[in-house]
């Protein structure tokens, strides 16, 4: 169970880092650039801890899938970026895949 907490922390840190990436303006602004670097370092640290127990393919699928959805929502809410119907449908399918992995896959329970 602790490994799933590590994975959740990795996802949160990656989302924070990626959210700051736009504000860093190509790494020309020190504050947001610092948030990006720290966010990614923390994300990979906790991902490394998570994959000690969770199979790397499962961990990465969950990390990437939830990261895509969360970043898209932040882009929509914070940066006023549009999400059209195909984008929303695609994110729904990604979330469905994450749920299938976690609810039905015996691989994810290792």
Describe this structure in words.
- It is found in: Cell membrane.
- With 110 residues, this protein is mostly helical.
- It has one domain (2-109).
- The protein has helices at 2-23, 30-50, 56-77, 85-104.
- The relative contact order is 0.14.
- The model has no long low-confidence stretch (mean pLDDT 92).
> Which structural class matches the secondary elements?
mainly alpha
The gyration radius over C-alpha positions equals: 15 Å
Helicity, in percent?
A: over 70%
Characterize the biggest β-sheet: none
Question: Runs with pLDDT <50, length 5+?
Answer: none
Distance between the termini: 10 Å
- Mean pLDDT score, rounded? 92
Tally the beta strands: 0
Number of domains: 1
Beta-strand portion reads under 5%
Number of helices: 4
Observed structural traits:
single chain, mainly alpha, flat
Spell out the blueprint of helices and strands:
Elements: H1 2-23, H2 30-50, H3 56-77, H4 85-104
Membrane topology: Multi-pass membrane protein
Transmembrane segments: 30-51, 58-79, 85-104
GO biological process, one term: glycine betaine transport
Please provide a brief summary of the model.
The chain is an all-alpha fold and 110 residues long.
């Amino acid at each position: 169970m602790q490994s799933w907490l590590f994975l959740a922390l990795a996802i949160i840190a990656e989302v924070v880092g990626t959210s700051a990436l736009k504000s860093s303006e190509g790494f020309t602004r020190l504050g947001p650039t610092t948030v990006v670097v720290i966010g990614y370092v923390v994300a990979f640290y906790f991902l490394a801890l998570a994959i000690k127990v969770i199979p790397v393919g499962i961990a990465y699928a969950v990390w990437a899938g939830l990261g895509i959805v969360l970043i898209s929502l932040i882009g929509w809410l914070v940066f006023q970026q549009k999400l059209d119907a195909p984008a929303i449908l695609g994110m729904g399918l990604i979330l469905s895949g994450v749920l299938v992995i976690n609810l039905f896959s015996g691989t994810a329970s290792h």
